[in-house]
Specification:
mainly alpha
Amino acid sequence: MQQVVALFVLKTDAGQSIFAWFGQTASDFLNQGPLAATFFFDADTIAKHWFFVNVLSSIIFFIAFIQMLYYTGAMQWLIGKFAWFFFKTMNVSGAEAVVAAASPWVGLGESACLVKPYVDIMTDSEIHLIMTSGFSTISGSVLSAYISLGVDVRILITASVMSIPASIAISKLRYPEIEEPVTRGHVVVDRGTADRQGKPSNLLHAFSRGALFGLIVAGQIV
């Protein structure tokens, strides 16, 4: 599967065009972060391309937008469709497929939350795969940081997608499944339950709460 992804992206015009479009779209989207940072600083400060200002503003913007997608259910729907492919081709449980498919885009903690109701009853092999996929792929916030630093987006996205089947294969070689997972045979994505703060009231509330979480992530990166 890794070879197929690599050949499709690097050796075919269609693959290059598709991933180039993804890359250009991602760059244009993340460039809105520094534009918003101009509101807090000024144009001269943004023009200096300081990591603390430009890169972290993109990260905060990305995380806030993802939280807004969670609120609408769009993120869960997209990840569910993406996970179905790995679920069918690699014979893993539905929960494993969801986490592995989500890890390159939303990070280790957020991807595990997509299957939160099943974490307590997962097999040891499933837990091992969740950890492996999370640490072997790039999270969305770090992806935005690399993009802001000028790294080729097409290569970043290609490497992230190729890491999904790799993490599954390595995990199952290291810790084979000998039990029967609860989500074997179907893909499930948790729409999320209210946390300690309660469910966001609307899109703006979800976005602002995501921005607050983005500040925490930005601080950890610094």
